[in-house]
């Protein structure tokens, strides 16, 4: 009987020594989220936010986006991609495209008349393309039904229509106009 216990004791000793020598996996600590504090949205940002297509977007490769108003900050937009939620600042470009810029500087959602694209600006790559909201799908159908038009489909007038009146006035001032002299007379 003692002869049967000796191999068992040797095996148990080897197992306990092996278990003690196995390094433990390091615990990955997730830094706590710092609460967002955003400045109030100016008029141009509020106008751009009003032009955003809110709701679900069906994207390529069976991916999706959900775009909604941020409940805490007027003039800011929330974009859900996968399991992540990003707070975005809407900016209307001179071409008429709507840019939703991540307030943490990570993502950019570009919305044009017929589709939207999500970019990771830090990695310099597109995350998902061909994201289409219901209204963008309607735009696609209308374009397909209409006779071909010259040009690229960019609407520069869209940016100036939505901008604040003082921004439009500043943008329409001639670039070669002489400036008023400063305190030194120059």
Number of helices: 5
Decide which structural class fits the backbone: alpha+beta
Percentage beta strand: 15-25%
Major β-sheet, in short? Answer: 8 strands, antiparallel
The tally of strands reads 8
Indicate the percent of residues in helices: 25-40%
Instruction: State the strand order across the main sheet.
Output: 1-2-3-4-5-6-7-8
User: How widely separated are the two ends?
Assistant: 109 Å
Quaternary assembly: single chain
Low-confidence stretches: 164-186
Would you mind describing this structure in some detail?
The chain is α+β, with helices and mostly antiparallel strands and 186 residues long. The chain has helices at residues 2-21, 43-50, 134-145, 156-162, 165-172, and strands spanning 55-58, 64-69, 77-81, 84-92, 98-102, 107-111, 116-120, 125-131. Strands 1-2-3-4-5-6-7-8 form an eight-stranded antiparallel beta sheet. The longest helix has 20 residues, at 2-21.
Q: Would you spell out the secondary-structure blueprint of this structure?
A:
Blueprint: H1 2-21, H2 43-50, E1 55-58, E2 64-69, E3 77-81, E4 84-92, E5 98-102, E6 107-111, E7 116-120, E8 125-131, H3 134-145, H4 156-162, H5 165-172
Keywords:
8-stranded antiparallel β-sheet; 5 helices; 30% helix
Short structural summary:
With 186 residues, the chain is α+β, with helices and mostly antiparallel strands. It is built from 5 helices and 8 strands, in the order ααββββββββααα.
């Amino acid at each position: 009987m003692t002869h049967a216990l000796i191999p068992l004791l040797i095996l148990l000793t080897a197992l306990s020594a092996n278990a003690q020598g196995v390094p433990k996996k390091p615990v990955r600590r997730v830094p706590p989220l710092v609460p967002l504090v955003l400045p109030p949205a100016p008029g141009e940002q509020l106008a751009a936010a009003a032009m955003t297509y809110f709701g679900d977007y069906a994207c390529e490769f069976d991916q999706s986006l959900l775009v909604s108003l941020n409940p805490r900050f007027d003039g800011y937009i929330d974009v859900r991609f996968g399991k992540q939620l990003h707070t975005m600042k809407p900016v209307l470009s001179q071409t008429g495209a709507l840019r939703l810029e991540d307030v943490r500087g990570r993502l950019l959602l570009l919305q044009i008349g017929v589709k939207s694209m999500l970019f990771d600006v830090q990695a310099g790559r597109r995350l998902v393309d061909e994201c289409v909201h219901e209204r963008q799908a309607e735009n696609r159908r209308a374009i397909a039904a209409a006779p071909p038009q010259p040009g690229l489909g960019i609407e520069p007038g869209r940016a100036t229509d939505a901008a604040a009146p003082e921004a439009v006035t500043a943008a329409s001032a001639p670039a070669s106009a002489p400036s008023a002299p400063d305190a030194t007379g120059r």
